[in-house]
Amino acid sequence: MSASQLQVWAVIIADVVGSSEVPELRRIRDRTLAGLSRQHLVKHRVLAHYTVTAWNEFQNVLTHPWEVPQVVWDLRLAFFPIELRIGLGIGAIDDVPGPSTAINEASSGECFFRAREAISSMNREAGKYPLRTSMRSGDPNLDRTTNLIYMLADSLMSGLTERQKETIRAYDATGSQEMAAERLQVSSESTVSRNLQRGYYWQLQDCRLELSELLRTYFA
């Protein structure tokens, strides 16, 4: 039976880390979310526009659980250098929103409860390193695997230089090292290639693709 027949959805709730220290947060937030809403609706990754639910928080419902890795990746790149804490919930929702729905008007069901629990868990479980992504699906084994992958991926991203992140974002947007070099105004593709390697781009890409396959196998 498919995930849609079982009414299994994914909810993403994100908040801005250190929001009080981010200049012009409202303008940056609204501009970035408007672009992401267009992009993700066209690609059928989300059901509605991103809805701001607090000064530093926003949320959406994804079309399928296996869209989670790509949406998380897109959010992190789009908001760079602003850092996000992202909670993910998988399960049922009470009302399926449409493109014109404000998600806070339909924000009930176990998906939303689990996403908020994931956000709360990061504050409780933070220890030797900060936690930036957490998922709750109702299956402890799946959550443990997913959260371990995100712990490692987030740790890799936290150590990147600003130039490495800019290179990753340029390459991700263009899909070409040559075009990324032009966008970054660097002299050669080898500079892009070197920054991608040093920025663990290929490892991060594999994490994203493999996690998407895991969720697709589990829920499709």
Structure described in brief:
This protein is an alpha+beta fold. It has helices at residues 25-42, 68-79, 110-125, 140-158, 162-174, 177-184, 189-198, 201-219, and strands at 9-16, 51-54, 57-62, 84-91, 133-136. Helices cover 52% and strands 14% of the residues.
Protein model, in words:
Mean pLDDT is 90; it is low at 1-5. This protein has a domain at 9-139: 2-Layer Sandwich (Alpha-Beta Plaits), CATH 3.30.70.270. The protein is of the alpha+beta class and 220 residues long. The protein has helices at 25-42, 68-79, 110-125, 140-158, 162-174, 177-184, 189-198, 201-219; strands spanning 9-16, 51-54, 57-62, 84-91, 133-136. The N and C termini lie close together (8 Å). It has a 5-stranded mixed β-sheet.
**CATH fold type of the domain at 9-139:** Alpha-Beta Plaits
Which CATH-level-2 architecture of the domain at 9-139? 2-Layer Sandwich
Distance between the termini: 8 Å
CATH class bucket of the domain at 9-139 = Alpha Beta
Principal-axis shape:
globular
Task: Note the beta-strand portion.
Answer: 5-15%
CATH superfamily of the domain at 9-139: Reverse transcriptase/Diguanylate cyclase domain
Largest sheet: 5 strands, mixed
- Quickly count the helices: 8
The largest beta-sheet arranges its strands as: 2-3-1-4-5
The overall pLDDT, averaged over residues, is 90
- Helix and strand run: EHEEHEHEHHHHH
Taking Cα atoms only, what radius of gyration do you get, to the nearest Å? 17 Å
